[in-house]
Structure formats: structure tokens, C-alpha cells
Records
---
Amino acid sequence: MGLFRKRKNIYLFDPNSLSYEKFNPTFKDRMYAVIRHLSSGILIAGIALFLFSRFFDSPMESQLRKENKLMQTQYEVLSLRLDRALDVLGDLQQRDENLYRAVFQAESIPESIRKSGFGGANRYSYLTNLPNAGLIISTSQKMDMLSKQLYVQSNSLEELVNLGKTQEERLKCIPAIQPVANKDLKRVASGYGWRIDPIYHDRHFHYGMDFAAPMGTEIHATGDGTVIYAGVRNGYGNCVMIDHGFGYETLYGHMSRFACHAGQHVTRGEIIGYVGSTGKSTGPHCHYEVHVNGRPDNPAKYYFMDLSPEEYEKMIQLAENHGMTMD
Ligand SMILES: [Zn+2]
């Protein structure tokens, strides 16, 4: 053997000649041998790579893992901030419903409308295959809730702005004082509700409030409006009716004298007549009714410019006494 390694000769046993014959491998045989060696090498390398990657991250993998963790933390923070924003919006909705809309007498927005339009599990089905799908779906859902509820809320405020523009006029017109001066509340005889009829002594519904006062006491318009009736009306005697607009009307009965005529514009506090006992009445008093959208309402609800909360309480108690009306 010299410096260069020589190819080994291969001998194969030939059963026919019972001797060893020198074997000369063809190109094909050599290729098979190469492929055999290569594939076993690749297999071993593959197993080694698998085991390595199973226990050790590549730099790129560990970078991605870090980014993924960071992203998850960001999502959690976002989710918490959305919770807080939803809480703040919830407070605003409550104030909107119980204060702003109530003050402007706007119809309330049902919960079903305020909170509708989101949910439905299918809506987020495209996210279900992501890692951390639960967190991502709940965050997306909160975001959708927030934008939907904000939309409803901003519409509500816009509506209130428009109502506010007519509010000044409205406040001047809506009945808001008592029809006769009643400083110590001694003049409330009977209120709205089921009462005993002063003449027939059976129960009947009293649609107004009676203010007992000496004959000739001034009767005032309780809000701005137009006199639509000033004359004798069955049972009510000399009676004045005022249309205040915005669906409000008031009626003042049993007057001794008129101080206005039909078609006249009157302002709150203006004298429209004097206490008397005309019509079906048992003594000098002013029978006062408030109608809202054509239906009688309890006049006690319309003295807010006249009475402090304590006086209001007392007035309600006085008016609630189930005594006889003066009609
Ligand atoms: Zn009455």
C-alpha cells in the first residue's frame, strides 16, 4: 500500500464455477451505495435536530416567544382598560337615564337597545384558532360593546341637546305653581284621587285639586299659554281653560268672576279670575285640573316652582287626606 489508498477489490463466490470471481460493481450499484449512506446520515441528523429543537430554542424562536408574551400582557392590559371604560360608560348611561332624560321628559331608552347588537359566538369564530383565543375574543367583544353603547349614548345626548333648545320655552309654559296664593298651605282642601262626593256622599274620582279660599281671592294662570275657554261649564260653573302647548292644559272652576277671555295670551302668575262657588260646589274654592296629552294628571306634580321639598311633602299629605271634596 502506497501513500494513496487504493480501491479494494471485491470477490464474490460463484456456485457454478465453485470459485471466487472478481466483482466489478456497475455505476448503478455504486449509486445505490451512495444513497444508502446518505439517507442513513440524513436520518441521524434529523433525529439530532429534532431532539435539539425539542429542548433548546433557536434565537428566532426565543425572540418570538418573548414577543408573544409581551403581546399577551398588552392584551391583558387592554382588556382591563376596556373594563374600566365600560364602567365609566355605565355610570354615564345611568345618569343619562335617571337624570338628563328625566329632566327633559324624554322617553327612556330600554336596556335591550342600550346593550343590544353584540355577542353571538359566531361573530368571533375567525379568532378561535389563535393562541390565547379566549383573551383575544373577550377583548374584541368588550371593544365592540364599548363602541355600540357609545353610539347609542351619543345619539341620546344629541336628542337632549335638541330638547334643551326648546326647554326654556317649555319651562315657561308647563304649569308649575298653585293657582291661588297658598303660603302656609292652609288652602288645600282635597286632592286628586278617590274622594267622597260632597252632595251625593258616594265615592267618585276627583280629577283635580280643591283650594278653599275666601270669595274673590285672585286665581292665577299657572303657566304661559292661551285661554281656550272662559264661560259656564256643566258642574264647573264659571270655568277657564288654558292651553300651555307641549301637551299641557289647565282648568280652573267655580269662579265668581272672570279676568280673561277666550283667545287671550296669558303669562304665569297673571290673574285670570276670582274664587267663587258657582256650579256644583259646597263653598268658595278653586277646583284646579292639569291635563297632559288629553288626560287628567295629579296637579300636585306641577307645583315645583312654588314649593320647597318640605312644603311639597306637606302638600301631598294634605291632599291625600281622604276627606270630602268641595267639587
Ligand atoms: Zn274639586
---
Amino acid sequence: MAGRVWILLACLGIILAGCSVGQTAVPTQLPTVAVLPTEVAQQPTLLPTATFAPLPATQTAVPTSTTLPTVTPVLSEATAVPQPTATFAAYGVAQTIGTSVNGRPIESYRFGFGSQTIVLVGGIHGGYEWNTIILAYNMIDYFLANPDQIPANISLYIIPSANPDGQYVVTGVDGRFTPADVSGDIRPGRFNGNQVDLNRNWACDWQAEGLWGDTVVSGGAVPFSEPETAALRTFFLREQPAAVLFWHSKADGIFVGSCDGTFQPSAEIAEIYGRASGYTVYSEFSAYPITGDASDWLATQNIPSFTVELKTRNGTDWEMNLDGVLALLDFYGR
Ligand SMILES: [Zn+2]
């Protein structure tokens, strides 16, 4: 090592002396190589990656737009850890978290990059509960226009349509739709492409045959047999949310996620949402036995969760749910 230093010093001496050897022996790139490490050392965190290059300046005026997916980079699951930048933080980050039986993407939209994760899920019962999907998209639009409502320590994920095959059956549309797109008998839209009820396919009190009122429905061959529920499970286990909310319709109330007994963390946040929104909070859904429920399974994973049943089949109860979501953000935010 010392020998190399002496050689370097000797060469430096030669260069400084203007030795003619320097014209051929010193690489022409030497000055550049000497400068680069200094630049890198000064701004190591600002080097953009190929995946998360800053959005072009022309896109910074978009928060009032309702066309979220076209202005945000769509990320594959393999690139699902965004690097926060000032520009990025102001926008929803869309990513595909899985694929339905018939190959439709299940999209998630992220707001904020905090360590506390809150997840809002619409449409697990597909087109049969299409108003929950509209509500979720409305919520996405709200946080696009009001990114300052996301506390610094929060990551808010909104999955607007957890059962896109069921949505398509009723609307004939992938992605965003309007109530005018809804037609025909909406009941078949409850199920996925395998005719499974996705909220009977989770591993809490699971049975192959579940109930929907008096109707027997398929809970799948085994828990998480369906690609939609498997994708959601993977997402939840990876993100370890502080809270998860599922929107359904139309039982008009909040139902606490718990598996065979009370899970107090779920009850606590359900009460917070209930007080802010005005929905009545129920410890469990008692109209008929529920098997394989998503919110109940989350309790087995120590993840607080609850279900919000909208009042009607076609309204969004917008103000109530916005107040509830903002209360959750306030509870977890700092
Ligand atoms: Zn439902």
C-alpha cells in the first residue's frame, strides 16, 4: 500500500513538473474521474432512479383533474417501494397489486410516504356494490386535490375495486365508470370470475359454502383460493397496515373486524370512524352467519379492521365517509 502511495506521489510530481511523460502516461479522463466522487458524495439521495424519475413539470398542475391514472406512474409489484420526492408526495401512486380470475388488474393508489399505513378497500363485492367503487374513486379524487390532508407520517392506500371481474359484469367498464354504466341484474356482479364470493374466501371461520342472506354462495375451494383474495392478503401482510377499512352496501352501519371474540384495536378505530361519520357501530354482523370474512381475518393477523356498510345501493354517503376517513387520518397522524 505504501508503495502505491509513493508511486502516485512520484507520478504527481512528474505531472506538476510538466514532464513530457504525462502526455502519454496519464489517462485523459483523470480530471473527470477525480471530480465525480465529490459530486456523488454531496447529493447521494437526489440521484433519480430509472423507475422513479421526477414527473415532468407540465404535470404538476393536475391535482384538480379527475383523471388520476394517466398522470401517475403505474408500478409493478416488483418496483413497489417508491422513493419519496416533493413532487411524488403530492400525487397518488398507482400500482397493480394483483390480477383477477379474468386477468383484470387490481389497482392500488398511494398517497403519502409515512410509516403508518391506512388502507381503504372498495368493491370486494364487485358490481353488486358498485356504489362503494364510486365512493373509493371519489376519495382518490379528493386526496389528489387535497394532498395536504395526508399527515406526514401516513401512507394512505385506496384500492377502489377489489373485484374487477364483478365490476365488469355490471358496468361493462374496466376502471372508472359512472352510475349510467350500470345496467341489468346487479346480483351476478357480486362474485368473481369463478363465481366465488370474495368476502367468504378468507381464513376466519372459513367454509366452502357461505351465506348471503338465505342464499348459499361459494367461499372457494380453500381459503385464499381466489387470485383477488390472495393478492390482497399478500398486500396486507407486506404493508402491515395500522388500519384497514372495507366499504360494502347496504346494511347501513359499521361492523368491527374480529375473529371469534372481540379484537379491541378494531373496535377502537371503528368507534372513531363511527363518531365522525354518524354510522352506528356494531360489534358484529348479526343478520346471518358470515364465514371467511376479510375484516375478520385481518384481526387474526393483529391488523385492526372494520367494514362500513353504506346506507343505500346507489349513493356514496360522501360527507359521512369523508369525515370518517379524515378522523382516521387525524387519529394516526402526527
Ligand atoms: Zn358486501
---
Amino acid sequence: MSKFKKALFCGIAPLLMAGMLSVTSQAVASGERLYGRFTQDNELYTPRNYREWVFIGSSVTPNDMNDGAAAFPEFHNVYIDPGSFEYWKKTGEFRNNTVIVKELVSVRGKESPSGNGYFPGEFNGIAAMVKSEKRYPDRPGNWAYFGFPEGARHGAIQEDSACSACHQEHAAQDQVFTQGYPVLRAAKP
Ligand code: HEC
């Protein structure tokens, strides 16, 4: 590191740390921990620890029940960030900054010692939706929808016609298919 860069770094590092501290303490003060990290263009960095979030439900749309051409032929395992689940338990609403991840899991087969059905195989990618007044003021309901190209560091915001339109028309509450998530319904006050 050149002397100049070192000086710059030493000057900036404490400021950055102070900034991080103030964000953390704000979050603690209001009792709200926020999840998801974003690029400057408000695109969600590929979430990593969502399997430790709150699992709210799963559905499967196998190819053989969809003329061999399901849009997503996998299981869809859905997780909500823990801070938003806490808020949901108090209010029955999706808070500003809600992050929901849908993970796709392939169908491994249709027979198991337990009987016939559809059984999960391998992880096969994710999709996500994020609600934010600040980041997505012009999106319906302030929800942005993300696809994650394989290996990408962050998601790509999708056109409203590609994702939001169907969610707006068919989902039971605020663009989320709560009709398919007994965990959410059971926790609703
Ligand atoms: C034709 C309708 C339709 C379209 C288009 C659609 N979805 Fe969905 N989506 C659903 C349904 C129905 C569910 C409920 C669970 C399931 O069946 O997978 C869902 C669930 C989800 C969930 C879990 C939270 C929730 O709202 O239930 C996410 C995240 C999601 N979709 C993201 C996307 C993204 C990103 C796109 C665009 C690339 C997209 N969806 C396009 C119908 C759609």
C-alpha cells in the first residue's frame, strides 16, 4: 500500500466503523434487525444464510403434472428473514425491508419407502422478493423481484410483467401467497 493510500485508509476506516456502529445501534434501538445487503443499484446480493431464516412453506409443481413443461418444475421452499417474521407476529403485515427467498429443489424421484409421491433431490437456484419504500418507491407495493443468474454475486431486478403481475393478481396478502404458508397464518395475531 502506498503511503498516500495508507493515510487515506487510516482516515476513512474509523469513519466507516463509526457508520457501521451507528447502523447497528439504530437497529438495536428500534428492536429491528435488517437482513439483505444491496448493491448501489439496490440489487440484492445473493443471500447466503437464508436456510437459517424462518421456513414458511413448500410447494411442488412437477413437470409430469404440467404437460412436461412446468415454469419451475422443482419444490419451492420459502423462507422469510427473522426480523420480518417477528414483525409479522406482532402486526400480521409484511414490514418495510422484508426479504423472502424461494429456493428451488429438484424432484429426485416419485417413490420412497414411505410411499409414492414427489421427493426432493438437489438445490437448484433461488428467487427472491424484497419490500422497501426507500429502494423501490415506484414498484407496486414497493416490492422488487429478483432472479439470480447462476454464479452471480447479486440478483437482477425483474420486470413487473415477469413476476409482480401474477403475484398482484393471485396472492392472498400484499403479493405474498400466504394461502400456501400455514406457518404465517398460524403466527398471525
Ligand atoms: C404465473 C404466476 C407467477 C409468476 C409469473 C411468478 N410467480 Fe412467484 N410465486 C407464484 C406462486 C403461486 C407462488 C407460491 C408458491 C409456489 O407455488 O411456488 C410464488 C412464490 C414466490 C415467492 C415466495 C413468496 C410468495 O410470494 O409466495 C417468491 C420469492 C417468488 N415467487 C418470486 C418470483 C419471481 C422472482 C418471479 C419472476 C421471475 C415470479 N415469482 C414470478 C406465482 C408466480
